[in-house]
Amino acid sequence: xxxxxxxxxxxxxxxxxxxxxxxxxxxxxxxxxxxxxxxxxxxxxxxxxxxxxxxxxxxxxxxxxxxxxxxxxxxxxxxxxxxxxxxxxxxxxxxxxxxxxxxxxxxxxxxxxxxxxxxxxxxxxxxxxxxxxxxxxxxxxxxxxxxxxxxxxxxxxxxxxxxxxxxxxxxxxxxxxxxxxxxxxxxxxxxxxxxxxxxxxxxxxxxxxxxxxxxxxxxxxxxxxxxxxxxxxxxxxxxxxxxxxxxxxxxxxxxxxxxxxxxxxxxxxxxxxxxxxxx
Amino acid sequence: xxxxxxxxxxxxxxxxxxxxxxxxxxxxxxxxxxxxxxxxxxxxxxxxxxxxxxxxxxxxxxxxxxxxxxxxxxxxxxxxxxxxxxxxxxxxxxxxxxxxxxxxxxxxxxxxxxxxxxxxxxxxxxxxxxxxxxxxxxxxxxxxxxxxxxxxxxxxxxxxxxxxxxxxxxxxxxxxxxxxxxxxxxxxxxxxxxxxxxxxxxxxxxxxxxxxxxxxxxxxxxxxxxxxxxxxxxxxxxxxxxxxxxxxxxxxxxxxxxxxxxxxxxxxxxxxxxxxxxxxxxxxxxxxxxxxxxxxxx
Lengths: 279, 298
Hints:
The structure holds two protein chains of two kinds. Chain A is mainly alpha-helical. Chain A folds into two domains: 11-53, no CATH class; 57-270, MetI-like (MetI-like fold, Orthogonal Bundle). Chain A is 72% helix and 0% strand. Chain A is built from eleven helices and no strands. In chain A, helix 3 runs parallel beside helix 6 (138-162), helix 3 (66-97) packs across helix 8 and helix 7 packs antiparallel against helix 8. Chain A is globular, with a radius of gyration of 24 Å. Mean pLDDT of chain A is 80; it is low at 1-6 and 270-279. Chain B folds into two domains: 1-49; 71-286, MetI-like (MetI-like fold, Orthogonal Bundle). Chain B has 13 helices and no strands. The N and C termini of chain B lie far apart (55 Å). The relative contact order of chain B is 0.13. Residues 1-5 of chain B have low confidence and may be disordered. Classes of the chains: A mainly alpha, B mainly alpha. The interface between A and B is large, with 85 and 85 residues.
């Protein structure tokens, strides 16, 4: 045992750590070059820009009318989070607690919108929404973003509800509480951490969701990612640095959300639920 | 009336016995929602794909398969997404295997790995253009180290998109594999070690078979992410040539040529190809061991 715990690592260990370090260096380069560029005056064929300036941020703010875009982003994400929790949590409760004919089919139905690439259902969805006059404004963007969010809430909340002892609910029922009362007085307080985690995950997904917003947004209902995409694909018209500044604003917003999320959620939980014993 | 009730319990009771009662109404909003906003538009799209302006019922599909510019998008998409998903999963295994124990800074490391997931494809694209571009830091380092004579072209082609898929996909795959690996009871491996199994044998005979179903799931999820690549294929790729993926073709048909039947046909085919790959992987997974990964006598 002592030999295996030695300080000198095996070549395989060196290789593994090397790959990890290389990945992070790469990542730092990718993020760093955007940040540096957004503060630089002119940067063509040198290691660092010739001078430093914060002007690009002011320019990005004015040129891209960033404030309305930010407000739209917040409105869309708040609505999507609220509605998907309201619709998703009761459904997750039934799926977690009850067995009934067609349960597996229903589960598959909720799994599909997450599994399919957004473009495949986004294009017909946008067509349908345009037909009924929903697309091109805020309601269309919210409706489209709800499609993967509601199933996402259901799938993350179901295991969470399963782990709550059903005896608590039975006790409440014994004492004469109806379904509504059980929900409001017993389950809701117990579910708060799970709902919080699910809403933050939905929030991060909605702010980052490109395809669906892109397909349904009109000129005054673009979220930040879509506005960023438009300014990037129209490169040449706008200064590279002001796009970088906008990207930095987007990243910082995501990072704030991320820090918030990590206060409530374990990183591995972002992609799967894991028993992290004793941690 | 009372005679009938006496002979057979009321419908409500018989349904309740099978688990159907008023509580199931809680499912209604969600089910209604998925049906109106997912199933209905999807079927509408499928219907639309069979009503092209010319060429009869299957005209849009015939157009897709006869036009090489459209047909080749299937291969292009698979050529990007399959290697990227495979690399992400295969690279995660040894790294996660080494890090499954507890060590200082593990929480920090996993937190750092979440960052690229939240960056999103658009920012990753912008960063890659700056970092890997001809005058970016990466080429600059290679040049000054004397490894290459001229800048390596890594953006606006296949590699740019591939790197963006690795940057966003690898952390995702790694965190999943890590969570699967931590679910495997370490005492199983210790038992094997007691019986004289070497490091490689323990991995090959104990851990890998238990991990394989998880790897299949991870592969499917990373593949789905890579398969639907759209923004980075446009921004860091070569959207008219080597990285013209199916989603670009679908978008092109719908919003540049306004040919909705064709766009729907491409979308349907895209879903079909993806489901085929997933079905193949999950079918292979069904042959593997499924069940508890905890040791005996739990």
